[in-house]
Write a structure and sequence with these properties.
Blueprint (H helix, E strand, L loop, with lengths): L2 E9 L4 H17 L3 E7 L7 E8 L2 H13 L1 H11 L7 E10 L2
Antiparallel strand pairs: 1-3, 1-4, 2-3
Helix pairs in contact: 1-3
Length: about 100
């Protein structure tokens, strides 16, 4: 049963390139650690326009394993530190999160 973790981002004006670079960096790390990633452009809906980042794990055990790896992976921690250091002028604002599983 797949587990999907989602985050919905509204990109700030003039920051799309920076946001896409951050997503590409994060995607490489997440996939290295075992997450499957998807990146979609939300064109219609309550949060549109926005980008949705989806990280999929094959089941709850894999999800837990990925979360544990993220807590200790130095490359992921450095990425988060770099992105957070720019919090006064971020590339995008987090407007939604979710955790879902197949039924």
């Amino acid at each position: 049963m797949a587990v999907l973790q989602t985050s919905v981002w509204k990109v700030r004006p003039g920051k799309t390139q920076n946001f896409l670079e951050n997503v590409a960096t994060g995607r490489k790390i997440l996939e290295k650690l075992g997450g499957q990633t998807r990146f979609i452009n939300l064109m219609i809906g309550s949060n549109a326009p926005a980008f949705v980042v989806i990280v999929e794990s094959k089941d709850w055990n894999a999800y837990g394993g990925l979360q544990s790896k993220l807590q200790t992976d130095s490359e992921w921690q450095a990425f988060l530190t770099r992105v957070a250091a720019n919090e006064r002028d971020p590339a995008a604002d987090l407007v939604g999160t979710g955790l879902a599983s197949d039924v």
